[in-house]
Design a protein that fits this description.
binds adenosine monophosphate; Rossmann fold; globular; single chain; binds zinc ion
Length: about 500
């Protein structure tokens, strides 16, 4: 049996779609994790839903994965610069807590969001503070090889010694220097040079500090990802993911120091994948800019975390997405429809791979109590098999999740497909989408106030107001019509005029 379509992924290194095959039996995957100095906002979670989709794609293709996501609990200076305070220390001072309390609190919040979003747990979540010794050894090795120079503010990596510096960013060195989001550092030789070690200024004692050959201080931000990924995945591995903002600076520097360290002339990591931003009002939601809506805000408003996941998957990971109430409402409605339609098909087989889906269809053995006697057996459900191949084509086309959703919806409407076949298609789609279609209760999944929750007397009041407004409109009494609309809005009722009449819903 064929292995289906060839998995193709968009490699930021070279900016093109490439065939992906793992270089060894287990694919190594590293995802840049959060800096745990505040609550993650909705945009912060997009990189992890994206990395989870990638993991599910690899599982579907039968590729074993070892996945590492780091927790940055030291080393990330405000404004991503080389000097200045550590983001965790600033948060600790602001909240009058210890840095340990800060990192514990926000790491826990991050894990809670990962779980709520049904993200498969990584194999390892290394913390930067547990790797400082290895970071010092790594930096010392670079120093020994002649890639560094020492300033009073720390040990710097000399980017002019790195032959392909900036290849990932696809800018020439002059462009890189201009684009580098770095502040002025006295004595720095090139604008793009970055700190491997940040030595304490005289008279300023950091809260988090370690002794090193370059004095007391703390590691630079980029160092941790090189050290922890190599420590846990081996010197070379297959895929590195992160938000698109990492493509021009953080990942460029990770590559420079890692390839200098390894010195074997091979690319350090083969595939670099980046997700685009989530926008709100056409701007990036930024944690550093003081908050942004959190997953908990959505769930408090009655949305299910899976509605947010579905909203994200409704866009391709390389497209910017605009977060609006209408969009998340639509996702919530779609989720509810999917669950209502799929509920009678349960139980669904879990964690399907392409191979297992095909085997189930061929054998007609779809799940406990199903399959037998359904005109099935050796007669594979042709329509279902067609949909499974479409799902495979979609995930292999650089993780085309919108296409997977469309295919699932089409299969659920298709009169040609049998119940057993549909069960396999729905399970296959959900193995890729991770929307918990096999278990969520459609009634539980939507806790927004709904029209059904209104008492009949309340509905009667609303209907009377709507009728009054319609009359006012017929009589062209616009001020009165507007006044009634305002009254309805103050009751939380949204009015929409359609050719068929006036519709209303709860906002
Ligand atoms: P921040 O704390 O705002 O610098 O964000 C931390 C990381 O989360 C960034 O490096 C991005 O990769 C990711 N991120 C932040 N904001 C967004 C967003 N609006 N959409 C997608 N990813 C984001
Ligand atoms: Zn990183």
């Amino acid at each position: 049996m064929s292995t289906g379509h060839q998995l193709r992924l968009y490699n930021s290194l070279g900016r093109r779609l490439e065939d992906f095959t793992p270089s060894a039996g287990v694919a190594g995957l590293y995802s840049c994790g959060p800096t745990v100095y505040s609550y993650p906002h909705l945009g912060n979670m997009r990189p992890y839903v994206f990395a989870d989709t990638l993991r599910r794609a690899l599982r579907w293709k039968g590729t074993a994965v070892r996945h590492v996501t780091n927790i940055t609990d030291v080393g990330h200076a405000v404004a991503d610069s080389d000097t200045g305070e550590d983001k965790l220390e600033v948060a600790a001072a602001r909240e009058r807590r210890s840095v340990e309390e800060i990192s514990a609190r926000y790491t826990e919040a991050f894990f809670a969001d990962l779980a709520a979003l049904n993200i498969l747990p990584a194999d390892e979540y290394p913390r930067a503070t547990a790797y400082v010794k290895q970071m010092i050894e790594f930096a010392a090795s670079l120093e020994e090889k002649g890639f560094t120079y020492l300033l009073p503010s720390g040990l710097y990596f000399d980017t002019s010694r790195s032959p392909g510096y900036g290849a990932l960013a696809m800018m020439d060195v002059a462009g890189q220097r201009e684009a580098a989001r770095v502040d002025y550092v006295q004595g720095r030789r090139n604008k793009t040079d970055f700190a491997l070690w940040r030595t304490e200024e005289p008279g300023v004692r950091r809260v988090m500090r370690w002794d090193s050959p370059w004095g007391w201080g703390a590691p630079g931000w980029h160092l941790e990802c090189s050290v922890m990924s190599m420590g846990l995945l081996g010197e070379h591995f297959d895929i590195h993911t992160g938000g698109v903002d990492h493509r021009e600076l953080h990942h460029v520097n990770e590559i420079a120091q890692s390839e200098a360290y390894l010195g074997d002339g091979r690319p350090w990591v083969r595939f670099w994948l980046h997700n685009e931003f989530l926008l709100m009002n056409a701007e990036k939601i930024a944690k550093s800019a003081g908050g942004g809506p959190r997953l908990a805000d959505l769930t408090q408003a009655g949305y299910h975390p899976m509605a947010y996941r579905l909203f994200l998957l409704g866009g391709h990971y390389r497209s910017q997405l605009d977060f609006t109430t209408q969009a998340v409402d639509a996702a919530q409605a779609t989720l509810r429809r999917l669950l209502t339609r799929i509920e009678p098909l349960r139980p669904l087989p879990e964690a399907l791979t392409l191979r297992a889906a095909r085997a189930l269809l061929a054998a007609g053995d779809v799940g406990a109590g199903y399959g037998a006697g359904a005109g099935y057996g050796a007669h594979a459900d042709k329509a279902a098999a067609g949909y499974v191949e479409q799902l495979d084509a979609a995930i292999c086309a650089d993780l085309a999740t919108p296409k997977i959703l469309a295919t699932l919806q089409e299969s659920l409407r298709d009169p040609e497909i049998g119940g057993d076949g549909l069960r396999v298609v729905a399970a296959a789609a959900d193995a890729l989408l991770g929307l918990r279609l096999s278990g969520l209760d459609p009634r539980e999944a939507d806790r927004r106030r709904s029209v059904r929750d209104l008492a009949p007397a309340q509905v009667a009041v609303i209907e009377r107001l709507i009728a009054g407004r319609s009359r006012a409109r017929e009589e062209r009494d616009w001020p009165r019509a507007d006044q009634i609309r305002a009254e309805l809005e103050s009751l939380g009722i949204q009015v929409t005029d359609t050719p068929a009449g006036t519709a209303w819903e709860l906002r």
